[in-house]
UniProtKB/TrEMBL annotation, chain A:
Lineage: Bacteria, Pseudomonadati, Bacteroidota, Cytophagia, Cytophagales
Coiled-coil segments on the chain, per record: none
Protein's UniProt name: M1 family aminopeptidase
Pfam families for the chain: Peptidase_M1 (PF01433)
GO molecular function terms noted in the UniProt entry: aminopeptidase activity
Protease among keywords: yes
UniProt organism field: Arcicella gelida
From TrEMBL, chain B:
GO MF, one annotated term: ATP binding
UniProt entry keywords in alphabetical sequence: ATP-binding, Nucleotide-binding, Transport
CDD domains according to UniProt: ABC_drug_resistance_like
Alphabetical list of Pfam families matching this protein: ABC_tran
Protein name: ABC transporter ATP-binding protein
Domain ABC transporter span(s) in chain numbering: 4-234
Family in the record: Belongs to the ABC transporter superfamily.
Species this chain originates from: Arcicella gelida
Length: 1091, 290
């Protein structure tokens, strides 16, 4: 008997097409599984077919495919109820055990068959031709089999047991649909558990368990060892298998071979309805059905309401929403964290968090309920009655579409309420309801609406709920994928681009306009999809696609045809308008074209990289900013000097490679011939009629304008914006070949047969030792700028403000440096509040106070005091221990959060609104990172602005690691030791994590290239250790000498090149006692694991 | 009033079953009975008239309206009760009727309400109008189906096996309602219960295996058999023998004995008794012949 049930189940499944469909789906998906699961994650030196990577991929895919397990395991018993055959089966002398066990085992075998697709698919994935062989180990069957048996099978058993039980007990198809999702949600919830062991134990897919179990593994281990079968892995597997057995036993005890469940009968209570005295006519009254446009509109609204109500009444819907809120509750504690410190729960942070966490649930709602809402009549067999009504098919589809939109809107409104509640509970009362509204209804809602159009279309096209859902999911995945493979244009990539981040300073800025146009374009496309859906939709009992199409067309009324034509015409015209903006008014480059261009640039112009060019010694500019047009006009000149021993005959000018930027009127104080051979690369060679002799000086005039035309859709133009303009002198003309335009990706370079690109030159590269910055055009300048901007904005740059005035509604600011600065200065403009103070730095010899100013966005007052105090303490410490502060002012200026960094330029520190300003620092539990980051940036006024380092390996140790050291010392003055320790612990964690992910062999600090985790995180720890070992006083003395000897300006002692770590370390050695000299070698010249 | 004229309607399913074969019918206002055994093609015919299914060939005209081409126009005047249907279990009868009334274009709220209340009364569901449809018994659900078919004062009402599951009282109530409606409406009633047709329909057709075997007025159709139907009570074990010797059109048990009806142009023998032919005999003989 048991065998009979068992074999029946298998036979039944083998005859169902979805069995093979699921298998194929898993098979194909798994073939690219590693790419999918590890997308955006740098595996470093760990190979893509190492057992650990395979195990994690398998675990993740199993988790994502739980819904398949649910659809197979949930229905064996439910099916009998669904098809009303229970009476026929249960009346037979069968035993509960045989019935349940037979069905369970039969389904389990089928499930194993389906999931074996995962195993075969992943193995196939290893042999995909475009794989890079360097990323793979030799093929090993056991590397796949062991993780499959040990990671996947126990999870599958657990899932199978639970799904089978819930399906059998609930007898509700919707439960079957949602439970796979619920498991996934539970998994997400475990992500919120902070205790690592518990998290690892409770992870149903063993992902965190794998991480925990392999925590101490080296790269070697990761590439060779199989998944451990003991310890936390064993516990995890035992736990979930045990739970599975428990679920099965529970189901066995509870299940009864009964056709009707008794509780349902008891619940049936006759509702008493008061008999109303109504006079009924003998014959039926007359009604007047109407079908004009207005009536159809009323039908549309009434039906939309009817359909959304029907979803809102579903328990399954509320279960999804509940899960969503649980996930949010667990996760929303960390908002906008930077440097380990939370931000204030500002509205845009909350929205971003809410959106990120709810999007998954919105997609679930979208995929499932678009299927439900379309087939609801068919599911309850009301379809014949429904289809015999004269409702227009388009009104029918549209009302279901609107019904879903209404459901989204309700969920969004409740998310907004949750967000406001969260802010209130956290004592934050600046509710920005408009920001909330736009954050959801402008950014997320159109996205959902567009995918709903697609979902409706696929449901109608396939004519089957289930296939329609899968087609929708596949469509979404493919759509993401084609974006990666070159369909980058917003007119081709379904749904278009997403809106740039909301900024308190700049709102949605100019990005909104392009966004809205593109969304209108796609909504029109969506309407066309909906019209097609309404033509294709199954009506009555016809199911064949071609029949549906022809008969659907026949029934398409004139007004719908006109509407369709109208949408099509609008779609094409708006598409053309967008194309005109993005590709005619602006330039559109595909990734391939960009690569080609970059490769061409390098191949053609690399020859000029180190040709002798004059150095800029003075700059005078008139900068007119037009933030509302996002434009600028710059007119001015460079004074240049030939510092080389040879006469210079040609000036090579590289214009900024950006569309809409024009460089004109380039003239010299002597006649030139213009060579436009390299015009394609915006590279012009001016042949001087009279060569510039060594030591001679000349003037170069130029005019540069930025005039944006139309709009672009890449959210990239962030330099000049409505409020919060920020760019630096890198936009201005520069001399000779610019390395920054080279292609960076090594694989791409290889494709173009370009030599591997050094991140930094070797420490003895004589050509780079004389450069303080990549392609530097100067060894120091005097700067004189007049910046004008629209009132009421303030414009800022380096130098003393010598005059300011207002004319014609524009604000003018004249800045002038009183000494030489490095050739690096910003142009900033925005509407600012200002906090002012002044102080006399302790170590400054003159008694002139330094003006301290913070220019900030109104509302961002939280940490101004901390930043101001940090400025003062930093100036005191550095001037006392290193050298006097060189400028008369120090300004911090906020800029929009499109970029998230702070940067030190002469006397001015542009500071992103995303860091520091909105940090919610709890002095009990957090390190005061607003204070620290400020101190770090102020330290750059010394490290980088007083002393420059040669552009070779180790440059960042001098610039960044010394700034880290300086800031830690200031932090140590202000806060107790435990805060410093907490800070160092955070640095260690960051370093360890980044180091594991790095694909590059770790370099010692002294030779560091561009690895942030080394020069920031490890550097901070190493320097702290150094001062602990040889004493803070000694370190400071060494730095003072180093600065004194290598200072960039007014320093006759400085050799004709810039400093390297070789020099720096020499100063450390000099002050270290003999017994401690090895410490310096260990910390900076060796790669040591740090504890 | 316009007639419904069906001409040479044919439909063959993908699996080769000929559901309709050159069906031609003329159906005037009033009740029209469609009689036939299970699987004769009644439901296919009705679904095709109700525009829910495509025909392979042939035409259906309602007055000047070509139904196969203008499906939506027909739907505006159509009432349809399928043989099998379901309901949203969580909704009340009143709510679902309201929803369907909107779909049928009854946008005026007052009209809609009045119609729904009257219909609920006519089908005796007024008392339970707020109850969930999921809790309805089979008969109650069937009555709900009847109510929805009448929502829009249809000009063409198609009811497929409407009395299945109804008790005799409800059946009568339903037939009264139908005959009241049929004064102004073409009502097509399919059934395999001969008595229903006899009691209600001034016109009828018998179809079997997708073909119309006979159509006309029931009493005229009975007339064709008058004087040719004989009855005899026999032993159960003699049945095979009689079937071989005579044209037996029906056999049934009565008080434990077997009664057979045979058709014969001459008197088959003194043991047989000439009886008054009824519609059932006509039906059985037609099915038997085909």
């Amino acid at each position: 008997m048991l065998y009979e049930f068992f074999i029946f189940e298998i036979k039944y499944r083998l005859r169902r097409p979805e069995t093979y469909f699921f298998f194929l789906l898993l098979f194909l998906f798994s073939a690219v599984g590693v790419e999918f699961v590890f997308q955006g994650i740098d595996l470093g030196l760990v190979k893509k077919n190492s057992p650990l990577v395979i195990a994690k991929t398998m675990g993740a895919i199993t988790g994502l495919s739980m819904i398949i397990a649910s659809m197979i395991m949930g229905v064996p018993v439910l099916r009998d109820f669904q098809y009303d055959v229970t009476s026929l089966i249960y009346v037979n002398p069968i035993s509960k055990k045989n019935y349940l066990l037979g069905r369970f085992l039969g389904s389990l075998v089928v499930l194993l068959f389906i999931f074996s697709g995962l195993l075969w698919g992943m193995m196939l994935g290893e042999f995909i031709p475009w794989n890079n062989p360097n990323e793979f180990l030799p093929f090993q069957f056991i590397n796949y089999l062991q993780p499959f048996i040990w990671v996947v099978l126990p999870t599958l058993f657990f899932g199978a047991a639970v799904f089978f039980t819930t399906g059998a007990l609930s007898k509700n198809l919707m439960v079957v649909y949602t439970q796979g999702v619920v498991i996934f949600v539970l998994f997400m919830i475990t992500k919120g558990i902070t205790n690592e062991t518990f998290q690892a134990l409770l992870d149903p897919f063993s992902l965190t368990t794998l991480t925990k179990a392999t925590k101490g593994w080296t790269v070697m281990d990761r590439n060779s060892l199989l998944i451990p079968m003991s310890g936390i892995m064993l516990l995890n597997k035992l736990f979930w298998i045990g739970l599975g057995i428990l679920a099965l036993s529970f189901g066995y005890i509870k299940f009864q071979l009964m056709v009707i469940n008794e509780r349902a009968v008891n619940k049936k209570q006759k509702q008493k309805v008061k008999p109303l005295v109504i006079t009924f006519t003998k014959s039926l009254p007359t009604v007047t059905p109407v079908f004009h446009i207005k009536a159809q509109f009323v039908q549309l609204l009434l039906n939309a309401w009817f359909h959304s109500l029907s979803i809102l009444k579903l328990i399954s819907f509320w279960a999804i929403i509940l899960c969503c809120f649980i996930v949010i509750l667990v996760n929303s504690v960390s908002l906008g964290t930077s440097y380990g410190v939370d931000s204030y729960p500002t509205t845009y942070f909350i929205i971003e968090e809410l959106r990120e966490m709810s999007i998954y649930f919105f997609m679930i709602i979208l995929v499932f309920y678009s299927g439900e809402i379309i087939w609801k009549e068919k599911d309850v067999k009301l379809n014949l009655i429904h289809d015999a009504t004269p409702l227009s098919s388009f009104v029918n589809m549209s009302s279901r579409f609107l019904g879903l939109l209404f459901v989204y809107a309700i969920v969004m409104l409740s998310l907004i309420v949750a967000g406001v509640l969260f802010q209130t509970l956290n004592g934050y009362y600046r509710y920005e309801l408009d920001v909330y509204f736009f954050g959801f209804f402008l950014e997320l809602f159109p996205f959902l609406a567009l995918y709903t159009f697609a979902a409706m279309f696929f449901q109608a096209l396939t004519g089957n709920k289930f296939v329609g859902m899968l087609a929708t999911i596949a469509f979404a995945i493919i759509n993401v994928a084609v974006g990666v493979f070159g369909f980058e244009h917003t007119l081709l990539n379904f749904g278009g681009h997403s809106l740039a981040s909301y900024s308190d300073m700049n709102g949605y800025g100019h990005f909104l306009n392009a966004y809205l146009w593109v969304k209108i374009y796609w909504v029109l496309f969506g309407l066309l999809l909906l019209i097609f859906a309404s033509v294709l939709m199954v009506k009555g009992t016809e199911t064949g696609l071609s029949k549906r199409w022809t008969s659907g067309l026949k029934q398409t009324g004139k007004s719908l045809r006109i509407f369709c034509l109208l949408c099509l015409m609008l779609f094409i015209s708006i598409g053309a308008y967008i194309f005109y903006n993005t590709n005619v008014l602006n330039e559109f480059w595909t990734k391939g074209e960009q690569d080609n261009f970059r490769a061409g640039y390098e191949k053609t112009l690399k020859q000029f990289e180190y040709i002798p060019q004059p150095k800029i010694t003075a700059i005078k500019l008139k900068v007119e900013l037009f933030p509302s047009q996002r434009a600028y006009h710059i007119i001015g000149y460079y004074i240049v000097t030939n510092t080389s021993p040879l006469p210079i005959r040609e000036i090579h000018v590289q214009k900024l490679m950006e569309s809409n930027v024009e460089l004109t009127d380039v003239t010299f104080d002597r006649s030139v011939t213009t060579n436009n051979k390299y015009k394609k690369y915006h590279y012009t060679i001016y042949q001087l009629s009279q060569p510039l002799a060594p030591g001679d000086t000349m003037k170069m005039n130029f005019k540069q304008t930025l005039e944006p035309r139309g709009f672009e859709t890449n959210n990239a133009d962030i330099d000049v914006v409505y409020n919060g303009t920020f760019f630096d002198n890198a936009v201005l003309p520069s001399f000779d070949y610019q390395k920054k335009y080279e292609m960076q990706d090594e694989d791409n370079r290889n494709d173009f047969e370009l030599a591997p690109r050094l991140q930094k030159a070797k420490r003895d590269d004589v050509r780079e030792l004389v450069n303080a910055r990549s392609g530097s055009d100067s060894d120091g300048i005097n700067l004189d700028i007049v910046i004008s901007t629209e009132s009421p904005q303030t414009a800022l740059t380096s130098g003393d403000l010598v005059a300011k005035w207002n004319a014609d509604g524009r604000n003018y600011f004249h800045y002038k440096t009183n000494q030489r600065i490095i050739n690096f200065y910003p142009i900033v403009s925005g509407q600012y509040e200002v906090m002012r103070d002044s102080s006399i730095p302790l170590g400054n010899t003159s008694n002139k106070p330094v003006d301290l100013e913070i220019y900030y966005q109104k509302g961002h007052e939280y940490n101004l005091k901390r930043m101001m105090e940090s400025m003062k303490m930093s100036l005191d410490y550095y001037s006392k221990h290193f050298s006097p502060y060189q400028y008369k002012q120090l300004r911090i200026v906020e800029f929009p959060r499109y970029r998230t960094f702070a940067q030190s330029l002469p006397g001015i520190i542009p500071f992103s609104e995303a860091i520091g300003f909105v940090m919610d620092i709890d002095d009990e539990k957090d390190v005061d990172m607003a204070f620290y980051v400020t101190a770090h940036e102020v330290a750059h006024q010394w490290w980088g602005l007083q002393l420059e380092a040669a552009n070779v390996q180790g440059q960042n140790m001098i610039l960044e690691t010394l700034a880290q050291y300086s800031a830690i010392m200031v932090l140590k003055e202000k806060y107790l030791n435990n805060k410093v320790q907490q800070f160092l612990k955070f640095q260690l964690d960051e370093y360890t994590e980044a180091n594991l992910k790095s694909s590059k062999k770790e370099l010692p600090l002294a030779l560091v290239e561009n690895e942030e985790h080394i020069y920031y995180n490890k550097g901070a720890i190493a320097m702290y250790e150094l001062q602990k070992q040889i004493g803070e006083k000694n370190v400071n003395e060494a730095l003072q000498h180093f600065l004194n000897d290598w200072h960039s300006f007014n320093n006759p002692k400085k050799p004709n090149r810039y400093a390297t770590t070789l020099n720096l370390i020499q100063y450390f050695r000099e002050v270290a006692p003999n017994s401690k000299k090895h410490v310096i070698t260990d910390l900076f010249e060796h790669v040591n694991s740090i504890e | 009033m316009e007639n419904l004229i069906i001409t040479d309607l044919s439909k063959t399913y993908n699996n080769g079953v000929k559901a309709l074969h050159k069906v031609s019918l003329q159906i005037p206002v009033g009740m029209f009975g469609l009689l036939g055994p299970n699987g004769a093609g009644k439901s296919t015919l009705m679904r095709t008239i109700a525009t829910l299914q495509e025909a392979d060939s042939g035409s259906i005209q309602l007055g000047n309206l070509n139904i196969l081409e203008n499906k939506n126009e027909l739907k505006k005047v159509l009432g349809y009760l399928p043989q099998q249907f379901g309901v949203y279990p969580a909704l009340s009868a009143e709510m679902l009727l309201n929803h369907l009334a909107v779909l049928k274009g009854i946008i005026n709220r007052k009209e809609r309400k009045e119609m729904i209340q009257n219909l609920l009364d006519k089908v005796n569901l007024y008392e339970v109008r707020k109850q969930k449809l999921g809790e309805f018994s089979g008969g109650m659900k069937q009555r709900f189906g009847i109510a929805q078919a009448l929502l829009n004062n249809p000009k063409l009402l198609i009811v497929d096996e409407p009395t299945a599951g109804l008790d005799p009282v409800e059946r009568n109530r339903f037939y009264n309602l139908l005959s009241q409606v049929s004064e102004h409406t073409i009502v097509i009633l399919s059934t395999h219960i001969v008595d229903d047709v006899k009691e209600l329909c001034p016109r009828m057709a018998i179809i079997n295996k997708g073909k119309v075997i006979i159509q006309g007025n029931p009493s005229q159709i009975i007339e064709t058999l008058q004087g040719r139907v004989y009855e005899k009570t026999i032993q159960k074990n003699e049945l095979e023998q009689y079937k071989n010797e005579y044209q037996v059109i029906s056999d049934r048990l009565y008080l434990g004995n077997q009664i057979v009806h045979v058709i014969s142009d001459i008197h088959p023998g003194s043991t047989f008794k000439l009886i008054e032919a009824n519609l059932e005999d006509v039906y059985m003989s037609q099915i038997f012949n085909s």
